[in-house]
Write a structure and sequence with these properties.
single chain, mainly alpha, 2 domains, two-stranded antiparallel sheet, 2% strand
Length: 403
C-alpha cells in the first residue's frame, strides 16, 4: 500500500514538472521558436569559459556564484556551439520542471504543494527569468527556502543537500541565514543545527566572493532614506499592491492586504502563524535585497527588472496558501488568488526579436576577423549586447561540441 502511495506521488510530481515546463513555454513562446543568448550568459560566461575552462563555474557573476546556470552553459557548450541557445533553453526548462517537482515532493510546511510548485510560473510579472539558462539560478535558489520550512525528522540528508545547493545558487541564501539560525535556536534539533551549519558554510563562500569582488549597494541605501515615507508607499505598492493588481488602485490594495494579513496572523494557531510569518519574512527580506541592488524607482514587476519581484511574489503566494489553513478563510483567499491570476494576464508572455545566433557563429567561423555574437538584453534588437570572439575562439568552441 505504501509503495502504491509513493508511486502515485512520484507520478504527480512528474505531472507537476511537465505542467511547469508547459507554462514556461506559454510565458516565453519566442524562446521556443527562436531561442536566444541572454545578458551575462553571453557577455561573461563565454569569456570566463575561454579563460578558465570548466572551472569558470566557480567564477562569480555580479559578485556571487550561480553554479546551476554555469552548469547549464557548460553542458550546452559541449553539445552544440552553433545551437547553444536551443540546448540552453531545453536544459533551463528541465531544471525548472525539476524544481517544481522538488517543491511538490519535499516534506515541508508549505500548504497545497501542487499549487505552490506551480506558483513560480504563474506569478504576475513580466516572465523575464523563465526559460533562460542564465536565470535558472533564480529557480534553484528556492531550495534554500524549502530547507528552511522542512518538516522535522524527514529526510534530513536531502534537506541539508538542498540548503547547500540553494546557497551556492543565489544570494537569497545569504539573507535567509538569520531565519535558519532562529529556527535552530527554537527547535534545537540535530537536523536544524546541521542545516544551519551548511547554510552558514555556503553563505561564507558567497560573502567571500561579494567582498573580494567589491559588490556594493551602499549608494541605493542612502537614496531610500532620503524620502522614507514616499519610498515606503512606493515599496508596498510595487511589492504588495501590484502583486494583486497592476493598475492604479494597487496602493490601496497593498494597504488593505497588509491589514488583512496582520489580522489573519493574529488569529492563526501558533504553528501556522510561524509558517505564514516565515514566508512573509522571506518576501520582505528578498524585496529588501532587491532594492539594495537596484534603485526602487527603476524597477517594476511589469517594467524594468521584473526578476527582482520573482522571490517576493512567490513567497507572498505561499503565505496566502498558509492562510488557507483556516477553513472559513478559504473563499476569501481563493478570490484573492483569482485576482492574482487575472493580474498575470496583464503580462502573460514576453516576446523578443530574433538575433540569429547561428548566423553570427557561422560568420565567426568563416571570417579571419571573428565576429560579434548577439546577446539579448531587453528583448529588442537595438538594446542587444554583444560578445566579440576571434575565429580561433569560435573554432575552439566548435571543436568542443558534439553537434
Amino acid at each position: 500500500m505504501q509503495d502504491q502511495t509513493s508511486s502515485a506521488s512520484w507520478k504527480k510530481a512528474i505531472f507537476i514538472g511537465l505542467a511547469a515546463i508547459l507554462i514556461s513555454i506559454v510565458r516565453r513562446p519566442d524562446q521556443l521558436t527562436h531561442p536566444e543568448v541572454w545578458v551575462e550568459e553571453g557577455s561573461q560566461f563565454f569569456p570566463q569559459f575561454l579563460e578558465h575552462g570548466w572551472l569558470f563555474i566557480f567564477e562569480p557573476i555580479n559578485g556571487y556564484l550561480i553554479i546551476p546556470s554555469k552548469l547549464i552553459a557548460l553542458i550546452s557548450y559541449h553539445i552544440s556551439f552553433v545551437h547553444y541557445p536551443t540546448v540552453s533553453y531545453i536544459l533551463a526548462l528541465i531544471v525548472s520542471g525539476l524544481v517544481a517537482a522538488t517543491i511538490y515532493r519535499s516534506p515541508t510546511f508549505i500548504r497545497y504543494p501542487a499549487i505552490a510548485a506551480l506558483a513560480p510560473f504563474l506569478i504576475p510579472f513580466d516572465p523575464e527569468p523563465i526559460g533562460i539558462g542564465e536565470y535558472a539560478f533564480w529557480f534553484v535558489g528556492l531550495f534554500s527556502v524549502l530547507a528552511l520550512v522542512w518538516q522535522p525528522g524527514k529526510s534530513p540528508k536531502v534537506r541539508i543537500a538542498l540548503a547547500g545547493i540553494g546557497g551556492l545558487s543565489a544570494p537569497l541564501g545569504i539573507s535567509l541565514l538569520p531565519l535558519f539560525a532562529l529556527r535552530a535556536l527554537i527547535c534545537r534539533s540535530r537536523s536544524d543545527v546541521l542545516t544551519l551549519g551548511t547554510a552558514t558554510a555556503v553563505t561564507a563562500i558567497q560573502l567571500w566572493f561579494v567582498v573580494t569582488t567589491g559588490s556594493s549597494s551602499a549608494n541605493y541605501v542612502s537614496a531610500l532614506f532620503a524620502n522614507p515615507y514616499e519610498n515606503l508607499l512606493v515599496f508596498i505598492t510595487k511589492f504588495i499592491g501590484q502583486f494583486f493588481w497592476a493598475r492604479d488602485p494597487s496602493t490601496l490594495l497593498a494597504i488593505a492586504a497588509v491589514f488583512v494579513g496582520c489580522a489573519y496572523l493574529w488569529r492563526d494557531v501558533r504553528e501556522q502563524r510561524f509558517v505564514a510569518l516565515t514566508f512573509l519574512a522571506c518576501a520582505a527580506i528578498s524585496a529588501g535585497l532587491s532594492i539594495l541592488r537596484v534603485p526602487l524607482d527603476a524597477i517594476g514587476p511589469m517594467a524594468n527588472g521584473p526578476r527582482y519581484f520573482f522571490y517576493p511574489y512567490i513567497f507572498l503566494s505561499w503565505a496566502m496558501l498558509s492562510f488557507c489553513a483556516v477553513e472559513e478563510r478559504r473563499k476569501a483567499i481563493m478570490i484573492a488568488g483569482m485576482l492574482v491570476l487575472l493580474n498575470t494576464l496583464n503580462f502573460l508572455s514576453r516576446p523578443h526579436d530574433d538575433l540569429d545566433w547561428a548566423g553570427a557563429v557561422h560568420q565567426c567561423l568563416t571570417s579571419d576577423a571573428g565576429a560579434d555574437l548577439p546577446v539579448q538584453f531587453k528583448g529588442d534588437r537595438p538594446s542587444a549586447w554583444k560578445v566579440t570572439l576571434t575565429q580561433a575562439e569560435c573554432e575552439r568552441m566548435e571543436r568542443l561540441s558534439i553537434f
